[in-house]
Amino acid sequence: MAGGPTIKLNSGTEIPAIGLGTWQSKPEEVISAVEYALKEAGYRHIDCACKLWSTRHQDVEVALDESLSALGVEYLDLYLVHWPICLNPKGNHPNFPTRPDGTRDVIHDWPIWKTWEQMEAVLKKGKVKAIGVSNASEKILEELLPHVSVVPAVDQLELHLYNPQHELLDYLKSKGIVAQAYSPLGSTNSPLHTDEHVTDIAKKYELSNTDVLLGYLLAKGMVVLPKSVTPARISSNFEGAIAALNKLSKEDVEALDKLAPSGKQKRIIMPPWGVDLGFRNWPGQSPLIL
């Protein structure tokens, strides 16, 4: 099934619901992985981790042009604001500048809507076909949306069985924003892979646990971005996710939905920004209750 299932974005375009994640892959490995995914495994969506870094919020078009040049393409299908945080572009590191005390060098008086104005400008110029955000909570989106002409097409988030972010997903759906799941299988040696409920469902349908973890997210209407550089795993992630999507029942999904609230909640990605982004299940954050 070349391309697999698709999801319609608010821009009117269709996005393949299964993409190959490439974040932190080694350069020599990712080339072969992408080639295999496209030519052999049926993928039509590559998440090449080409995003707007937090130090580039004040020069979006220049940053985008650098990415286009590096990729050798004239446009991107989707361009994301990586984190809704503006870092000092003249700091001591090109991507993660810090202050003398070691904290992140955040520009606190730069509102996210100023970044988004520039995102809309490159969209209008045709340099990107759709624009979105990443790591944006209800709190951040409530600050952004009153100022936009173009609603973000997607919000890429840490989403998996143990960090399902049910309330945020409901909010995104109400705004017509598609959720994309990075780290959909958790981290290396993640307990998700040995969860007894996942194992029971996998056995019932003669699937692997990975199939169930990916199919669960697809069944909830989101894009999944499993990462691998191994041909066999690249293929099995794609084929298994589709198989699980076709086999999981509504009752299966509802049962899996209950695992995190029952005590298995686990967020993995929590950079020390020193900024309240408004996420649930992140120590020190104050979620917006709508």
Automatic annotation (TrEMBL):
Residues in NADP-dependent oxidoreductase domain copies: 56-259
InterPro entries referenced in this protein's UniProt entry, alphabetically: AKR (IPR020471), NAD(P)_OxRdtase_dom_sf (IPR036812), NADP_OxRdtase_dom (IPR023210)
Top-level taxon: Eukaryota
GO molecular function, one term: oxidoreductase activity
Gene3D superfamilies associated with the record: NADP-dependent oxidoreductase domain
Coiled coil ranges: none
Pfam families, sorted: Aldo_ket_red
UniProt protein name: NADP-dependent oxidoreductase domain-containing protein
